[in-house]
Design a protein that fits this description.
8 helices; alpha/beta
């Protein structure tokens, strides 16, 4: 009762990285709240699934294993979570801000009248004082995300209703194993007690999943361009630099909107989140929604003609100059010194 729950997405028997990242964060939050971390897995043929989640510090694993629960469809998964939460009364539920999470989260929160904060970039525990009502709420979930077009960082709370629900994008939280030998309790639920036959009215006959054209999230080096790159042609310089560095190319939203790069390369609050060893920001001003997607990079180099660009304040190194001038020199000197 009143524990922290994480909904774990599964694809081909593998727990999604975003779910493992949320288990890592959930373990930390549960420790602060002195409560248990519980995970939910829903699917078909889930034998030994606990081996994937227990190392992340899960105290209790709720397993719903039955035909028709994989691939994901809205009604059965919603029915499972709604009834389970009515029984267990968790104080917090976390799930990935994925295609599934964006479908499932609102359905569950609406059914439970609990509210939901989407695309959080940070989660913390803290108190809130309602001075007008003279009430102090203890140990609330601070659901932190950029708001109003990214102009401010909003901290959202849910004092009254439970569970406090939030979705988080992949890559925002770190994924860390607590202990390879950690063991928790497994609860195998009877799916018939949670899902009616009518919930299986939609059946997936065939699925087509197009794999990503690049590995932006997994690359140790990312060369990213913003509106300041100036043109699609100048973006080719970034691809040239990425080629010699064995890096991937990313872009800010402004660059994507201008047609300089494809949308699947967008980094930030409305794109992907990356945390490479080296992030080279070319012509990127550094709006808060872009910063949210790359601020955990180990080292940041900013190339910008504007010495006062906001991104320079978080960069480890700043190169003041135009892309056309600086990038070809970087390519030349890297080739000369890497032989």
């Amino acid at each position: 009762m009143n524990n922290l729950f994480v909904y774990c997405e599964i694809e081909d028997g593998i727990v999604a990285d975003v779910s493992l990242e949320l288990l890592t964060k959930g373990r930390s939050l549960a420790n602060q709240l002195t409560c248990q971390l519980e995970a939910i897995v829903i699917g078909t043929n889930l034998k030994d699934i606990e081996k994937q989640v227990f190392p992340y510090g899960v105290d209790k694993l709720h397993v719903f294993d039955s035909e028709g629960l994989y691939p994901y469809t809205s009604l059965p998964h919603t029915a499972v979570l709604v009834k389970l939460f009515q029984e267990e009364k968790p104080q917090i539920c976390l799930m990935g801000a994925t295609v599934i999470g964006r479908d499932l989260g609102p359905r569950v929160s609406s059914a439970l009248h609990s509210g939901l904060t989407a695309d959080c970039t940070s989660l913390e525990i803290g108190d809130h004082e309602d001075k007008k009502a003279g009430v102090v709420y203890k140990d609330l979930l601070y659901q932190i995300r950029p708001a109003f077009g990214g102009n401010i960082v909003a901290t959202i709370i849910n004092p009254e209703h439970r569970p406090q629900m939030a979705t988080v994008r992949e890559g925002v939280m770190k994924k860390e194993i607590l202990s390879p030998t950690h063991q928790g309790e497994i609860i195998n639920h009877d799916v018939k007690d949670y899902v009616s036959d009518s919930d299986f009215i939609v059946k997936v006959i065939e699925r087509h999943i197009e794999k990503a054209k690049h590995n932006l999230k997994g690359s140790p080096i990312v060369v990213a361009g913003g509106y300041g790159v100036g043109s699609k042609e100048n973006f080719d310089l970034l691809f040239d630099l990425a080629k010699v560095l064995n890096a991937e190319v990313g872009a800010s939203r402004a660059a994507v909107d201008a047609g300089f790069a494809d949308h699947d390369r967008q980094i930030g609050q409305t794109g992907v989140t990356v945390r490479p060893k080296l992030y080279i920001a070319c012509g990127i001003s550094g709006q808060i929604q872009h910063i949210a997607g790359m601020q955990e990079s180990s080292m940041i180099i900013s190339i910008n003609s504007d010495p006062d660009a906001p991104i320079n304040t978080i960069a480890d190194y700043v190169i003041n100059g135009s892309i056309e001038e600086v990038v070809p020199k970087m390519i030349k000197y890297y080739k000369a010194n890497s032989k």
